[in-house]
Task: structure prediction
Amino acid sequence: MIRLNVFIQVSAENRSAALEIAKELVEKSLKDNGCIAYDIFESATRSDVLMICETWKDAESLSAHEKAEHFVTLVPKLQELGAMKLEKFTF
Result:
């Protein structure tokens, strides 16, 4: 399995828009083949940080997700709204 933690640092004025886009990404990604878990979290200590936590069955499932229409449409929008940092774990 593969776990991705995607941190998004956003300004106060972009936070609401980023959260809405992230929620749409979660809703659509949960339907992708091989998706075990996908959710968005808000930091309890830093209002400028959101985190998407996703778990994939295997590398093939993740690769297909990264080519899906919702991914290639929504992720660039998130990148415009904030700085993204990725952590990847295989287990």
